[in-house]
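PROTEIN DATA CARD
Card holder: ZYBA0S05-00430g1_1
Chain length: 354
Origin: Zygosaccharomyces bailii
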Amino acid sequence: MHTFEVVILGASGGPDAGATQCFLVRPAGWQGLESVCVDGGAGTSQIARMIASGQCKRQVESFYANDYESVEHFLDKDAYVDAGLPLSLCEVLAPARSTAQRAFRVYQAIRSYYVTHAHLDHIAAMVLDTPLIFGTEQPCSKTICGLPFTTQAIQQNIFNDAVWPNLLQGGGGLLRLDTLRSGIPTTCQAFEKVEVTPFPVNHGMGASERHEVYSTVYLFRDKTTGNCILICGDVEPDGDKEPLLAQVWSHIAANVPLDKLKAIIIECSSTMATKELYGHLGPRNLVEELTHLQGLYGPHALGHMHVIITHVKSICSYRDPRLVILEEVRKEASRAGLHGIIFSVAVRGYTFHL
Ligand SMILES: [Zn+2]
Ligand SMILES: [Zn+2]
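Structure generated from the sequence above:
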């Protein structure tokens, strides 16, 4: 039995405009249109594309060694993944006639965006899509949720009438900001049975002023079953900074029984050959973090948990960096004695059942 459906609307770490990180999350088999998003790097145009291409398994755009790759290359054989939107969602959509109408209905029913941080690759499509909130007989409302550093940045630097119309003040209350508190669970607006807890993590330094940059990881918990998934934004190892990521692992190990931790969706932006990570994780760092978590749970841990790699950066190379990273992560994990983890890459246009 699966607990969550995670639709990958975008998973690139850039530059791919319109295809960067955005995950649409729903309880498994939810018989309605409602959803929430983690980040908003992709939006309605990607939803429309998924509707138009339907549920048939298709090739994954790569543009490296091959322009298209088989989806199996990106997935573990034990990953339960479907092409397109979840069937339960498609069934509710059926009465709408055009792809645009259907995509619009899915967009309308996104209740909240849980934003990890305000970097453009995590919010661009969410911002550009906001006029659609107001363009119908039945206006919909949306809440942008985040920790204080995220909501402040969105208010001051995006919806300020200079970069984008200030729909937070001038939108008749249909677009709202909700500032969350670190480590405090809140009930998901769209789904009573799901609670969401945000935790801050380190994400490098500013490029001009050397100040700390932060991002967020969100723990989703189904209150009925206790099953959890962890969805990360950009994140770097703590190093000699405040041990924020270590605190996330400690919280999880103390509060989530191992058999309830179904998946970790986490970034791995660059291959092992990359020297400077600029506030991100590479394969070795990712495996070190998982090893740390395993240590907290005890010696026999982490088998049969999904780890889904996201936010791989597009680079000028021959091989698809997502496939290189997946291979490197699997090798490093096996060298570190992490056995049985189900490693896959988040592939745009597919739904993971977790
Ligand atoms: Zn990013
Ligand atoms: Zn970032």
